[in-house]
Design a protein that fits this description.
By secondary structure, the chain is an alpha/beta fold. It has three helices and six strands. The protein has a six-stranded mixed barrel with strand order 1-5-2-4-3-6. Strand 3 and strand 4 form a beta hairpin. It is globular, with a radius of gyration of 20 Å.
């Protein structure tokens, strides 16, 4: 009986390893390095919250009029970008970018917000994060954009859609 349990246990471990490896590999294949081109280095990145004092007033939507799920703002994976910097990079609302250099916040984000006038002319982005996260700053962030912007929807579809106004 113990031999059978040991064999089942080993097979279970093998199966779990296979599942984990397969899902990791699949996720990595969705973000092939050749799909992304480096567009900016040494970008300053900080975090912000969907709170009245940290925006233009209406914390339930972004500068692009994207309506937020205030119960889970992180699910949208939104960044704000300084307006001139966005223009110089040829980016617009709805574009997705890949961020590296923050550790926890590295990944694919969508541009749906801009930063206030006090940041004018800076190479700067802000991650929209849950309200319980109050600080975070990185100075050597790299930004990538898709080589083919027609692939944007592949990534946007994995992010939470705009919210209805039910959660205000």
């Amino acid at each position: 009986m113990n031999k059978l349990k040991n064999k089942l246990f080993k097979n279970l471990i093998l199966l779990l390893n296979f599942i984990l490896f397969t899902s990791f590999t699949f996720e990595r294949e969705n973000v092939k390095s050749e799909e992304w081109k480096l567009i900016a280095e040494n970008v300053e990145a900080t975090v912000y919250n969907a709170l009245p004092g940290q925006g233009w007033g209406d914390c339930s939507q972004t500068a692009s009029s994207f309506k937020l799920n205030l119960k889970d703002v992180y699910s949208h994976k939104i960044i704000a970008i300084e307006k001139t910097f966005m223009k110089n990079l040829g980016l617009k609302f709805g574009d997705v970018v890949k961020i590296e250099g923050t550790g926890k916040w590295d990944g694919i984000w969508q541009i749906q917000d801009t930063m206030g006038a006090r940041h004018k002319g800076k190479k700067k982005i802000d991650f929209l994060v849950p309200n319980n996260i109050k600080s975070g700053k990185w100075n050597t962030v790299k930004m990538y954009c898709l080589s083919d912007k027609n692939n944007t929807n592949i990534y946007i579809n994995k992010m939470a859609p705009e919210s209805s106004n039910k959660n205000k």
